[in-house]
Amino acid sequence: MSDTNPTNQQPSQLFIVSDSTGATAENMTRAALAQFEDYLVHITTYSHITDRRKLQALVRLAHKEDALIVFTLVNPDAREALYEAGHKHNVDCVDLIGGLIGGLAKHLGGLQPRGIPGAKTSLSDEYFRRIDAVEFTVKHDDGAEARYLDQSDIVLVGVSRTSKTPLSTYLAQKGWKVANIPLVLGIDLPNQLFTIDQDKIFALTIEPEPLHAIRLARIRNLGLQPNSNYGSLEHIHMELEYANELFRANPTWPVIDVTRRAVEESADLVLKIFMERKRARGRETTIRG
After folding, report:
1. 109: exposed, middle or buried (C-beta count within 10 Å: 0-12, 13-18, 19+)?
2. Number of Cα atoms under 13 Å in the Cβ half of residue 117
3. Number of folded domains in the chain?
């Protein structure tokens, strides 16, 4: 496998292979990628792959494209077939679930796993709630459809590259309808942001230097002009000061610093504050009653 070269405009190839939807593997992989900076990776997901010949074909393709394979295959025969093909064609394969299944089987007194891809007891109301949340969040990304902000559970506000979209997506997968609003110098914010329930709004911030590095990496990856305001440290300071002034003017908005914080950590903090406020409001309602 060749190393990822930050200066190379060709993205590293990464194959997600699953005998179910592949959502688990993709989410875990993106969470792991969040620990790196200045990379360009193209992810391709191959779902519902159970046939040995298809697995072997994917390994051959991975060899041709110099791709890393990350997989979740619950059937031990399928895992073995993938490992064999990977060894034969010198393709690295990372198993995200096999070790966990084996550890659980041992811990549970030698119980044998069912080996059923995506095994669930039933399609619950919770499942469909999460689907609705993801659809809502996709439609309300980056300030889109602001007139429906009142229908959101959570609203994220911040300058560009403060993890608004990844954080929105992560929260949506947990069943929360999330909208996010970008803060851009010279562009007015939607009126709805100030008329909805202010307890659902969360402000995102980041330190200037890490933000500068993130934006410069994005400029290189997209082939943009390096001298644009987007990548200017001076302009970044101006953007963050504008954001901080807005946050100070709206003290009910909790400010989450995403600097060196994984998406999962930011999400945990948002939900902790959100649920504390929800419980407090419930107590107030009970007292008033």
Report:
1. exposed
2. 22
3. 2
| Tens digit of each residue's pLDDT (9 = 90 or more) over 6-23 | 444 578 899 999 988 888
Residue (of 142, 159, 160, 165) closest to 241 by Cα position:
159
**Which tokens belong to 139?**
């439609």
In the chain, the percentage of residues whose pLDDT exceeds 70 is 90
Contact by Cβ (8 Å): 87, 55: no
Co-location of 144 and 280 in the same domain:
yes
DSSP SS3 for 37: coil
- Could you tell me if 167 and 31 are in contact, meaning their C-beta atoms sit under 8 angstroms apart? no
- Asked if 147 contacts 192 with a C-beta cutoff of 8 angstroms, the reply is yes
Residue 227: which CATH number? Answer: 3.40.50
With contact defined as beta carbons under 8 Å apart, do 202 and 253 qualify?
yes
Of 56, 16, 20, 50, the C-alpha closest to 33 is: 16
**Rounded to whole angstroms, how far apart are CA atoms 202 and 254?**
5
- Contact at 8 Å (CB) between 117 and 75? yes
pLDDT band at 109 (very low <50, low <70, confident <90, very high): confident
The pLDDT value given to residue 284: 53
Positive/negative CA dihedral, 188, 191, 196, 197: positive
Among 56, 80, 107, the domain boundary falls at 107
Higher pLDDT, 251 or 227: 251
pLDDT classification of 76: cutoffs 50, 70, 90: confident
Q: What is the mean predicted confidence (pLDDT) over 220-226?
A: 81
Structural domain containing residue 139 = 125-288
